Amino acid sequence: MKTAGLSLVELLVTLALAAVLLGMALPGFQELAANSRGSAALNQIIGAVNYARSAAVTHHATVTLCPGVDRLCLGRDQWHRGALLFLDRNGNGLLETDDPVLGRLPSLDDGGRIYWRSFRNRGYLQFMARGYTAWQNGSFLYCSVNRSASDARMVILNPQGRIRVARDRNGDGVVEDASGRPVSCPA
Predict the structure, then answer these.
(1) Which of 21, 80, 87, 135 could tie 108 with a disulfide, CB 3.0–4.6 Å?
(2) Residue 137 CA: distances (Å) to CA of 11, 154, 159, 164, 166
């Protein structure tokens, strides 16, 4: 009578091969996950910017997008904690009691950060009733938890409120800003 199965040596060889293959694939999966987190964070920002522009035109009023939680706008580099989009009745960039909140963005739970830099050096972004920014061309930069420039992603906003994704034009693995310079993440 013949028995079917694996010997201990065959099982150990199979497990060793599986461990080697998994070890080779794991860095690729980690890079894919990091890219997905960055893309997801910027896609949320793109959606919020497009919605803010549309809401400003629809309501024929100023709409502000600020980093914030609950009903409180936070400081310039707090976008990772979430964002608020609201109808800014007096256009002062502050969320007041009579300003209705139109939308919210959740916080980033991966340790990444989002930075907003703009022409008029404000910590928030405003759209006027015609769909243009309040002269705030600028960019949103996503930096992963390791602050590596190769993991950084950027979207660029022009004064007319149109947004585009920054690309790696020279093939060095780092996207370039609107001026063609490689992006870098703050320490």
Answers:
(1) 80
(2) 61, 13, 5, 12, 14
Q: SS3 for 149?
A: helix
Side chain identity at residue 7, one-letter code? S
Domains of the chain from N-terminus onward:
31-165 (3.55.40.10)
Amino acid identity at 34: A
Q: How far is the C-alpha of 99 from the C-alpha of 18, rounded, in Å? A: 58
What residue type is assigned to position 147 of the chain?
Answer: R
Dihedrals φ, ψ of 126, to 5°? -120, 140
Q: Which of 157, 129, 167, 135 is nearest to 50 (CA)?
A: 157
* CB-neighbour burial class of residue 183 (10 A; exposed 0-12, middle 13-18, buried 19+): buried
Helices (H), the chain: 8-59
What distance in Å separates the CA atoms of residue 71 and residue 83, rounded to the nearest whole number? 10
Each of the 187 residues of the chain gets a pLDDT tens digit; together they read: 676 777 888 888 888 888 888 787 777 666 667 677 778 888 999 999 999 999 999 999 999 999 999 999 998 889 999 999 999 999 999 999 999 999 999 998 878 999 999 988 899 999 999 999 988 899 999 998 888 888 899 999 999 999 999 999 999 989 999 999 999 998 7
Nearest to 83 by CA among 118, 117, 124: 124
